[in-house]
Structure formats: C-alpha cells, structure tokens
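Notes from the 1:1 (GR / supervisor)

We went over the backlog. Supervisor wanted to see one worked example end to end before approving the batch request, so GR pasted a single chain during the call. The sequence is below; no edits were made to it. Supervisor asked that the structure be written out right there so they could see what the output format looks like.
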Amino acid sequence: MLFVFPQFPPQRERGSNSSEPWGKKLRNANWKGGPGAGFGSDPASDPLALRASVTCAVMHKFDIFRFKTRLADYNYTLGGRMFHHLQQAVVSCQEAAYPTVVKLPNNHLICGYSSGGGANISGGTHWSSSTDDGASWNYGGMILPPQQDPKTANSLRLSLTREGNILAYGQRKYLEHGTQFGRCPNEAVFCTAGVSSMDWSTACIIPHSFACPVEVSNPIVELSDGRWLAPAALLSSPERLGEKVIAWESADKGASWENYVTVMADPLGKKGFFEQKVIETEPGIVYAFAWTVQLGSYRNLPNSFSFSEDSGRTWQGPFEMELNGQTMTPCWLGGNNFLLIYNYRNQPHGIKIAYVEITGSHAKIIWDEFLWHPQSARQSDKEGIRTLEDLAFGLPSLIRLGQQKFMAVFWAMDQGHCLIRSMTFVINSL
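Structure output shown during the call:
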C-alpha cells in the first residue's frame, strides 16, 4: 500500500504573497531514501502490552525500593554543585518515553508520555498524575490509542490553556512504512481534555500542504492574545531534515489552521533544527530554541534560538548559543533569565542545566552544570544525528514548583527497560 500525503488547501505563510505550498516539489508518495539515508535501521521491537495499573504500581514500588537500597550509586548519578536533590520517582515503567508535564491550578501534576516500544514508539500516549510534587505517581489512562488498520503509533506533548483544558499535541505515524526518522509518513494531531474530567477527545488533524513528514517536539503554545501556535520541523528529504521550523496558527482554539509562520531557517541553507521548543515569556514575547546540526552530515553544531516581539507573527534569528547539546527545553525565570535543560552526549554524558541570560541576539551562559548521569556509558563513537541509535535517556523538561524548587522529567533505560523518571530538586542560587 502506498501512503499519499493528504492534500489540504494550501496554507499561506504569514508575510508571504504566495499561496504555493513550500515543498511542493518534494511530493513523494513512497517517501523512500537511498542506501544509508535516514537515522538508522528499523527497530525489531516487541513492545510490552499495557499491564493493569496495579502491576505498574507494584513495579513502581520495587523500582523505588531498589534505588533506595543502592543509595551510594543513586547519589553518584546526581551531578552539579548547583542542585540540592530532594527525591526521584518512576512515572511509568511500561517501555515509556518522551514525557511532558503540566501543573494544574490545584498544584496537581499531569505527565503525558508514549508507552510501548520505548524510544522507538510503537504504541499510544498515556498519562499519570501526582498530588505530592512528583514524589509518587498514579496511572491515569490513555490519551490517544494506536490504530491497527492502518497500523499507527503516536507521541503527544501536553500544555494547559487558561480556560482549564489540557492540550495533547504531537505526531501520529504510519508504521507500515517503517520507523526511520524522516522517512515514516506522519501527521500532526492534537487531543483535548478538561482538567476536571480528563475525558480525552478524538484526535484532530492539523491540515497542511507540506509533502513531507514533520517532527513535533513542543506542545501547542497558547499566546496571551488567545492564538494557538503549533510548532513543527519539516523533514523535507533525507539530506535536508529539519531545514525549517514552522508554527501553524489558530485564532479559533484549534478549529482552523489557515496560516503558518517560519520560526527558524538558516539563510545559508546549511543548518537543520531539531527538537524545537517554543514558549511565550511575556505578552507578545516568544522564544524558540533548537538542537542544531549540519544538514547532510547531521554533525552537531552550537545550538540556536530565535525570538518574536509580535506574538509569533514574525521572528528574528536564528542566533547561535555557546551550548552544544540536544533537546533543549526552556524554563523562564523572569526578565531575560532562563534555565535550559538538555541532553549532553559528549563524555561524560548526561543531562545538564544551563542558566542563561538572553539580551537581543546574545545568550550569556552564567553556569552550566550536570543534573544527572546515566549508570552506564555510551558504547559508540558515533557523532551527530546517528547517536539516536544509541540513546539511553532523553527529552528532559523542567517545571517550576516553587521559587527555588523544580522538577525534571525524562526517559531513561534501566536494566533493559525504558522508564519515565521524575527528579525534584532545589537550586539554591536562585
């Protein structure tokens, strides 16, 4: 069966006089690359079926007990003189990956994550909740199940609206065409739920006219003017993956998506941008951050940021930062100050947090410290994008629980299983 990318009415890029879809020439129903193209071989995964919540609870308690009994190793994995560790917990033990967290008005936490296949997504998106600042987690249910005909998997990211609804936005991919990054056909979708009922809607597809897969790494951003931005990177071809980060706009709470804006694109056409993260800091001020690579070779480059001063309608940048890592997620501290949590895959590898002051096009690194180290070192010397084949942890993000108190969530391998972890800590210098 051939997959044909859906043909929706052309969208107009904001600020452009042309309605011709960007990437029209890239239409390719098979979406095949040449030998060696893409990011690795198709995984031969046999994902665990979803167990009953009581089973997960038992495994969760065992995992916490196991970590408490090896306290010396446990503390050794926590790096950085800036952090005072409080607690660590397991959110999910069901071959899970790619978590995001929202904090509800009642201070409860909701974590969404993919379950099944670990980092090689083969299932649906689930959620768990915590009422004690991440000290313990209870399984909540399914957000979006996978489909069997055609066979799909999905991975969604959570955000909270001012009206009290949770948005789960991400990508649904079609597994019959393989799972290689950049070659697997997919679509951008979102679901909604009220925080009181947690009753999730069916998936709504964001229509677009790009004839290529997209990478969705950031939740939908609700701006202060009421508009929604849905960011994505275009995976235009095996040689030009991530060459452009765009954001679809909705002025009617997701009912329609008529325009898109370009958030990041290298004017010289030599850089690609992955794992884009977009946040509004103050009314009308929006920042975007991305892991940056050299197109074609996908060698890691210093990371990039861009910003908008008109609610995301136009963007300045991208500008280079003196940080070399992957999957940067920002936490705004006020003023020009940010915490950026990211994967660091040089030796020694782990998860780092940088304190950064951004003024215009300049990002000043105040400090840059390890938060966490994995128990085992990576066994490969591969560089750049091909390290995706060797990942043992990833997609860290931060949520602020108090003036100096934060919680990080990320996925990590432990004894052959992919788990979602939460880590609560204090930064005394703030």
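Supervisor's comment: Confidence is low (pLDDT under 50) at residues 1-8, 17-76, 376-382, 384-390.
Batch request approved.
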